[in-house]
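I had to read the description of the data format several times before I understood it. In essence, backbone conformation is discretised, so a fold becomes a row of integers matching the chain in length. I therefore recommend that a typical entry be quoted early in the introduction. For illustration, here is how one protein appears when written out as sequence plus structure tokens.

***
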Amino acid sequence: MTTEMDQTDRRLLNIIQSSFPMTEEPFRRIGAELGIDEAEVIERTAAAKEKNIVRQIGAIFDTRKLGYATALVAMRLPSDRLDSGARVVNEHPGVSHNYARNGPFNLWFTLAVPPSESLEGTVEEMAGRAQAESYRLMPTIRFFKIGVNFDMVNQEGAADVYYSPDGYDRNGGQDFRSPAPVTDFEIEVIRELQEDLQLTARPFAPMAESLGITQRQLFDLAADFVRRGIMRRFSAVLHHRRAGFRANAMAVWNVPEERSVEVGAMMAGSRWVTHCYERPRFEDWRYSHFTMIHAASREKCEEVAGELSEATGIDDYMLLYSTREYKKTRVRYFV
């Protein structure tokens, strides 16, 4: 797929995955930056979606700020039950990522549930229906980084600018852990902004019309969501493998508690690391820190992990590679 893209396609992907312009005519603005007309921008974006290089264009919200409880869940299923168990897990609308991986647990997924639903109860019910042998609930203790961004031109990691909702960014960002109350109307706005953007010259006009407001008011509401930590950004989500980043390693690290913040901040500083979290340990699981590394090959993932190990002095780690993607989407809120 990536061999069919020219440099203009790659530059286009760099723009729309970083920060899609929230203006009345966004494709015209992107075209001006690329030196092509609006119609060609729309055509190229549509082609990228047709090839599933671009999964979706829409708002990315902070789950915890909206009052949802979240966790990474590790399950161990019999090999002959893995596919059917994954389908059971995928039924829940709060499951956004679900992968088969190597290692002691063979199914890993993220789950978000609204305040009215029990996270523990939901996972217990899932595990029973999936016939899991065991599972571990791994909620976030410290959230150091999320910065899913790739340099499509140079085929390198580009997570230099990132979001740290717990305030561990390089600028000492504010603490975004506590939920932010939203009004009934703001919930309606969130429902509109989370939908996949139409590929038309004025894609925000139908959203604003549905809400009974002007486009300018819609953009102001989105900017306020960002200010309050409710919304991270409005952007495209890429299919990493189809975009050329074929290797996907979840590196897990055994970090001494007294070095938790120091090491987490150092790992988050890598442009190859898109996610960095601290999670609970268990008797059968000694790893505390999780970093997601995306690259064109396993060799590059291993090189990045080796550099992180050398920089931090943490040599007890393991790379868990995804062997199958069962689900990857955005959480749909208030549905």
Summary: The chain has two domains: 1-51, 65-164+241-328. The CA atoms of residues 159 and 271 lie 4 Å apart.
